[in-house]
Every structure is written in structure tokens, then in C-alpha cells.
Amino acid sequence: RNFLQFLGRATLITIFGGSGVFYFLSQKNKNPGAQLPFDPEKKTLVVLGSGWGATSLLTTLDTTDYNVVVISPKNFFLFTPLLPSVAVGTLNPRSIIQPTRYITRHKARAVSVIEAEASDVDPINKTVSFIDNSEIKGATSSTTIKYDYLVYAVGAEVQTFNIPGVKEHAVFMKELADAERMQREFMDCLETAAFPGQSPEEIDRLLHMVVVGGGPTGVELSGELHDFLEDDLKSWYPELAGRIKISLVEAMPSVLPMFSKQLIQYTESTFKESKIDILTKTMVKEVKEKAVVLQMPDKSIVEVPCGMVVWAAGNKNRQITQDLISKLPAEQTNRRGIDVDDHLRMKGAEGIFAIGDCTATSYAPTAQVASQQGAYLARVLQQLAKKDALAANLQTLEAEKVEEVGEEAQQRKNKLEREIKLAQSQIAKVNPRPFQYSHQGSLAYIGSDRAIADLPFMNGNVATAGVATYLFWRSAYLSTLFSLRNRTLVATDWLKVKLFGRDVSRE
Ligand code: FAD
Ligand code: NAI
Fold it and tell me: What integer best gives the mean pLDDT of the chain?
């Protein structure tokens, strides 16, 4: 009995204590305090983008050192790894975004957040031009500002290879709006297939979903679509669910080339069980309104009717990045993206750092790389601020020439020389280390409550797959989310789906 009483008390203390801490943390987040104003003495640091690289930088950066200006067409951060879950309604779109101001308002010095698209970077005059591309515009909707340092983190856009019909008829899986659009189109296909009098051929066409690209985005999305079908559509569309077909088209000989061989095989066999068709060595040549044109492994061309095409065929540079590269033809010779040195400085451009998917490095274009680069750069910028302050001090000392003669003047001169030497040696000591990427492993969800993971272990690699890996995948992403708010929203969405299933209404 005593033990039960103890257990009861411990449970109550945990519940009330936990709720108290949760309430305290949420209120602390909700009510940011006063911030230092911009200081004309400080240098201007402009950050382009609000994605993985920029957000990681902003989270780590000590803003007392700079006047920071963030420019991005989206006034929020998007947690891309969970985007496919939004596309099938497992997660609410708002659960995986974090307004940038929720981060910047907690910084010591105020940060200016501007919702605008950078249209031009002038690396010679050190300026950025930007425009307000949103629907509502004020009297001023474009301007140019100067920077001392620029963090270029604009990411990449979807690669279409200029394949006809992709832009017009396919759905992308890159932005929040893409996932919302996919959900609408998918439900539209289902409701249209349910329209009375639809021919069997038309029903089969409408219910054929083609995912292009066997990289992690295409695989995760196919897995999520399968879950939606199994967990929900079978209940609410019993007459149609059995006819839904998912095809994953990949030009290369296998899907997920970045994962270990056994994980590729595991994914392929899971997809086979899930009745997801994987078409490898098959290339999409055209996307039509009601079909995809495929080049099959034997080079024959086949037109396959379908209701929806999701395009997840990789990244390419944004126009602004191409323009910036072409301004420095001698130093920027890599067409894949911005060429940076091992301190992430853009080659040939003084004061510009580039991070994430817009760069051409030996690293894969992943969130992991971009966020580590952002955090590294925040530390480098802190050191640079220190170096700049020491250099300014040195300049003042050097300007203090001692002209008079005499013993007292000589003493002052000697003291000044000692101070100059000290400042010089302090400057020399501020020497940021090069960026070093630390790979934490690769994880992907493949549907049916299973995930795959390649995890680094003692200079080697451990490949794991299955339901336990799926639980690991969930907890890893839950802990990687940037805020308590996002973690709460995502966990609540998962619980809601477990209890009530996914919503099948079409907005
Ligand atoms: P982004 O995060 O794309 O951010 C770019 C920012 O720049 C955005 O805020 C954008 O609005 C802004 N911007 C665009 N144009 C301009 C402009 N002209 N001026 C100013 N700002 C501009 N990686 C992983 O490691 N693990 C995963 O599980 C994973 N899952 C993914 C799932 C999906 C569906 C996708 C699409 C990607 C996934 N990735 C994953 C890859 C990861 O999202 C990218 O590598 C990462 O977003 C790159 O970060 P970034 O900061 O370079 O670019
Ligand atoms: P990706 O570049 O990894 O894969 C695109 C695939 O599309 C390639 O395999 C390519 O061969 C194929 N393809 C291109 N054109 C085609 C065509 N016409 N017909 C058929 N197939 C075609 O792109 P993805 O998946 O969008 O990933 C982008 C980056 O984001 C990668 O670096 C990836 O590692 C990362 N990412 C990581 C995730 C994770 O770790 N779980 C999840 C999603 C993305």
C-alpha cells in the first residue's frame, strides 16, 4: 500500500511538475523581452534565406556583434524532412514551420526580418537588391541595401531538366505549398474517380499516382501515400482503394543510391509487399495532362495514363545564384553552385559566405550539412567581430603618433609600440578553423511503419531497418525540430492521426 501511495504521489508530482515546466517554457517563448537597438558602430550582416542554413546560423549567432538583416520570401523556416507527411495529411502544414521572428525576437540585439526575394547581389559594391513579391504591395516594393558581410543561403530549386510538361502538369515536393497542392490534387483524383458513370479505364487512370525520382524524397513520399491508402482510404473509399496504384520511376539502376546495399534491398522488398511498383532504369521523357511518357529500360517509349505526377527529381541552382556566379567568372567556375573555400567564403567575393544547397561542395545537399554550416558560420562571424574590433583598436593606436621629443614622450612611444604589438598578436590569434562536416547518419521513412538508417559507428557504418528504426526516425526528427512549439504540434498531430485517422476532406 505504501508503495502504491508513493507511486501515486510520484505520478502527480511528475504530471504537475512537468506541466509547470512546460507552461514556464512556453510562456518564456511567447513573451520575448526587450532587445538592444541597431548600433551604427556595428557592421551590417545580411542573411539571405530562412531555411536550414540560415535558421541554424540565426539560432547560434550572437547578434550583439552585428546589425543583422534577414531577407527571405518566406517569413518562416520549413522543416523539410516532414514535408511528405504533410502531403498526405498526417501532419498539419503549420506544425512543421517556425516563423523566423520567433527566433530573432529572442536575440540580444534586434534583427530586421524582411519578407522579400533577393533579386541581385553585387559582390563588388557589396549590395543586395530585393523585391516584395507577395500579393499585397506597399508604395515601396523594391530597394537596395549595403552589407559588410553577406550569408548567402538561398537553397536550390527543383530540377526539371526542361522536360516538357513537368512545370505545367507535375506537382513538386519542395515547399509547403507543394505538399498542400499534392494533397488537394490527390483527393481530387479520388473524388473524380468516384463520380457516377466514370468508365473503369478512367477510374484506373485517375487512381494511378506516379512519383518521379527514387531519391529519398520520392521514396518517402511513396511510403506515405501507401500509409494513407492502407490506414484511411480503405475505410472511406472501399470501392476505390483497391484500385489505387503507386509507381515510383527512377532513371538509375536502383533507388536510394546514398544508402547501403542491404537497405536498398530492404526498401525494394518493402515496396513490393506494399504493392508500390518500382520502375528503375526508366526515364520520364514528358509529362502530359493525363499521362507520363516513359523511356523503358529497353529504350522503348511508353505512354502511361495517370491521375497525378509528383516530381522529385533533384535540385538545381536558383537564377539569382547563377547570376552571382556569372559575375565572378575567373573564380567561380563550378556550374553546380557557389564555389567556397574551406571556411565557406565565396571564392573571389570579399565578405560573402555561402552555405547549404546553393554551394558546390563535396557534401550532399542535405539539411544536416546546411545546419552544421550555419552553426559553424555563426561561430566564425563571432570571431570575425572580435578580429574587426581588435583591428579598429590597432588603427586607433597607430594613429596616435608621438611627435614630441624627450624622456616622457619616449616612454609613451614605447608603451604605444608595446600595445600595437599586443593588438597585432591578438589579431593573429583569431584564426577560425576550417569547416568540418560530421556525418550523423542517413535516415529515411519508407512507409508501413518502417524506416531505414545508415548510422556511423566506430569508424564504420551500421545499417538498420524496420519498426524500431521507424521509432528512432520519429524521435530523431522530433528532437531535431527547432522549437518546443513545433515538437508539441507534431507530437499532437501524430496522436490525432492514431486516434481519428487522416482527414480526407478536400480544401
Ligand atoms: P533551404 O532550406 O531550401 O532554404 C533556402 C531559403 O532561401 C528558403 O527560406 C527560401 O525561402 C529562401 N530563398 C529562396 N530564394 C531566395 C531569394 N531570392 N532571396 C532570399 N531568400 C531566398 N535533408 C536531410 O538532411 N534530411 C532529410 O530528412 C531531408 N528531407 C528532405 C525532404 C524533402 C521533401 C526535401 C525537399 C528536402 C529534404 N532534405 C533533407 C534536404 C534539405 O531540406 C536541404 O538540403 C536543406 O533545406 C538545405 O538547406 P538550405 O538552407 O541550403 O536551403
Ligand atoms: P535526389 O537528387 O536525391 O534524387 C532524384 C532522383 O531522380 C535521382 O535518383 C535521379 O536519377 C532521378 N531522376 C532525375 N530525372 C529523372 C527522370 N527524368 N526520370 C526518372 N528519374 C529521374 O533528389 P531528392 O530525393 O529530392 O533529394 C534531394 C537532396 O535532399 C538529396 O541530397 C537527399 O539526400 C536530400 N534528402 C534527404 C532525405 C533524407 O535523408 N531522408 C529526404 C529527402 C531529401
Answer: 94
Q: CA 191, 192, 198, 199 torsion: positive or negative?
A: negative
Amino acid in position 163:
I
Pocket test for ligand 1, best of 80, 181, 311 (most atoms within 8 A of CB): 80
Give the C-alpha separation, 397 to 420, whole Å: 6
- pLDDT tens-digit readout, 196-234: 999 999 999 999 999 999 999 999 999 999 999 999 999
Which residue, among 293, 277, 285, 216, has the nearest Cα to 244 in the 3D structure?
A: 277
At 398 the three-state DSSP class reads helix
Fold of 166-316+438-500: FAD/NAD(P)-binding domain (3.50.50)
Q: Using DSSP, state whether 442 is helix, strand or coil.
A: strand
ipTM exceeds 0.95: yes
Sheet architecture: strand order including 442-447: 442-447, 450-457, 460-466
Cα 370 to ligand 1 centre (Å): 8
Residues 6+ apart with CB under 8 A from 387: 427, 430
Q: pLDDT grade, residue 429 (50/70/90)?
A: confident
Topology at the third CATH level for domain 33-156+317-437: FAD/NAD(P)-binding domain (3.50.50)
What's 326's DSSP letter? H
Q: Which of 69, 72, 130, 173 to mutate to test the pocket of ligand 1 (most atoms within 8 A of CB)?
A: 72
What's the gap in Å between 173 CA and the centre of ligand 1?
11
Residues in contact with ligand 2 by the CB-under-6-Å rule are 81, 163, 212-218, 220, 249-252, 258, 283-284, 312-315, 364-366, 442-444
Closest CA to 209 of 276, 282, 281, 283: 276
Tell me which ligand sits closest to the C-alpha of residue 220.
Answer: 2
From the CA of 214, how far away is ligand 2's center (Å)?
6
Residue-wise pLDDT for 152-183, tens only, equals 999 999 999 999 999 999 999 999 999 999 99
Give the span between the Cα atoms of 112 and 145, in whole angstroms: 12
Q: Is the CB of 218 under 6 A from ligand 1?
A: no
Give the three-class secondary structure for 334.
Answer: coil
- What percent helix, strand, coil does the chain show, rounded to 5? 45, 20, 35
Ligand lying closest to the C-alpha of residue 217: 2
**The three grid cell numbers given for residue 425, joined into one nine-digit string:** 598578436
Residue nearest to atom 15 of ligand 2 (CA): 313
**Whether the CB of 317 sits within 6 Å of ligand 1:** no
